Amino acid sequence: MTNYDYDVMFIGSGHANWHAAVALTQAGKKVVLIEKDLIAGTCTNYGCNAKILLDGAADVIHQAAAYQKKGLAGNLKINWPELMAYKHETIDPIHQLLEQQFAAAGVDVVKGVASFVDQHTVIVDEKQITATDIIIGTGQKPNRLPISGKEFLHDSREFLDLPELPEHMTFIGAGIVSLEFAMLVQAAGTKVSVIEFADSALRGFEKKYVDKALAKMKVLGIDIHFNEAVKAVSQTNSGFLVTTASGLAVETNYIVDATGRIPNIAELNLEKVGVNFDRTGILVDDHLQTNVAHIYASGDVIAKKIPKLTPTATFESNYLAALLSNQTTAAIQYPAIASVVFTLPRIAQVGITSQEATATPEKYHLATIPFGARLKFQTKNEPDAEATLVFDQENYLVGASVYGDEAPELINFLTMIISQKLTLSKLNKAIFAFPSQTIGLLSMLSPYLKK
Ligand SMILES: Cc1cc2nc3c(=O)[nH]c(=O)nc-3n(C[C@H](O)[C@H](O)[C@H](O)COP(=O)(O)OP(=O)(O)OC[C@H]3O[C@@H](n4cnc5c(N)ncnc54)[C@H](O)[C@@H]3O)c2cc1C
Ligand SMILES: NC(=O)c1ccc[n+]([C@@H]2O[C@H](COP(=O)([O-])OP(=O)(O)OC[C@H]3O[C@@H](n4cnc5c(N)ncnc54)[C@H](O)[C@@H]3O)[C@@H](O)[C@H]2O)c1
């Protein structure tokens, strides 16, 4: 039998990999983690964590606005440089702390770009490293539009590091990244334009809630242009000019290209080892194994239809840890995956959508829960907060969408009901805190739920 340097090699140190790297080391495997950038990947350094920290101040402004003429006076203002300094103070040390934790756990960390040499070997800065099993968890990177003036475009990573806010910011794309950032900088006083190629935004989320959020953005002064294909960007005396195929011209000071994310596979030399992939990522079977034995993929780099999110990457990492330590031989089985757009208010989604439910009335039925209007004392004056719930024929909850400031917490509660198939009698065995939006929503959904 060939002796390799390691039992398991992980390429990439994000959530897709690090949970398994630590767990397998603890299970007695010899493990190496290779990372070309900061340890811990996108979510920790350039994604969710940095975003939600900056969003905190905008969320306070948004919630305070609901009490204008209802007992609260005066205007709050974001000091962006100070907020950015707080972001750096909080986020910047995390990668070092995690690297120390990985080392303390016994994981070998190697810095550099990994590229395949053969099916058990990668090269990193001229050093060859071998392993029995290899997990590719290299994530995604921002798409860059191939247009004239593309050098003037910025991505989400640069946005999350902006030292000063420009007067006018333009986002290309009306997806999750754009609309979260658009509301954040609007709350900080920047004029915002959004230019979207398609005729709708945030596909995959409940349309009526997306429309509510878009209407709110319009009232706040955010310009959103649909059905516009950006053709070119040029420099002007005062900033930049974005032009579209139809002739729309937007003068602006800073442009974010948020037209999606593409898998990080170009540097891996996958052709050399014959690992199959397409433009959406690496192809895997139901054990997350590629077409090459002993090479697996995890997280955002996988070609998959389910949401490419941190909790999905973590779930896959935990699955691979169990698989490679012989705790399971079963195929991966994904539960319902909760997803949140951190606009103000938030839009959350889990499980079967109302669109799917409406298309198959023999299987599902819907209930709309206007908890913001009905439970004013339990919400912070958000009368349009609402949930749309999907039940199957036995009245089990199988899907939910929520629009409201506490949607991330409420969707987690609803996700638990869905994934554990909780009935009303099971839920009634618990005593929840009151007043709270959870208990309010529970009281309103009880009549519909399986007894
Ligand atoms: C702005 C933004 C906000 C987001 N907000 C949320 C959110 O609120 N909630 C949520 O659930 N998800 C969010 N996401 C998505 C989330 O960040 C990803 O789903 C998650 O990071 C995926 O983890 P991963 O480990 O698969 O990939 P990553 O975290 O991207 O890690 C991959 C790592 O591999 C490294 N790498 C790549 N190629 C090589 C190579 N050849 N050799 C060595 N190393 C390599 C990369 O440098 C990177 O560190 C957000 C993403 C962005 C960009
Ligand atoms: N809260 C979260 O969970 C969260 C937050 C941010 C990012 N993410 C992750 O990052 C991914 C990427 O987010 P994203 O917002 O960049 O991508 P996205 O796919 O959500 O949105 C991209 C948008 O750009 C539009 N577009 C594409 N080409 C265009 C063009 N030439 N001109 C104008 N518009 C164009 C698309 O039609 C789409 O609406 C998400 O799908 C998710 O996996 C998650």
TrEMBL record:
A single GO molecular function term of this UniProt record: oxidoreductase activity
UniProt cross-references to Pfam families, sorted A to Z: Pyr_redox_2, Pyr_redox_dim
Note accompanying the cofactor annotation: Binds 1 FAD per subunit.
Keywords: FAD, Flavoprotein, NAD, Nucleotide-binding
Keyword Flavoprotein: yes
Disulfide bonds: C43-C48
Binding-site residues for FAD, renumbered to this chain: D300
UniProt record similarity statement: Belongs to the class-I pyridine nucleotide-disulfide oxidoreductase family.
Protein name: NAD(P)/FAD-dependent oxidoreductase
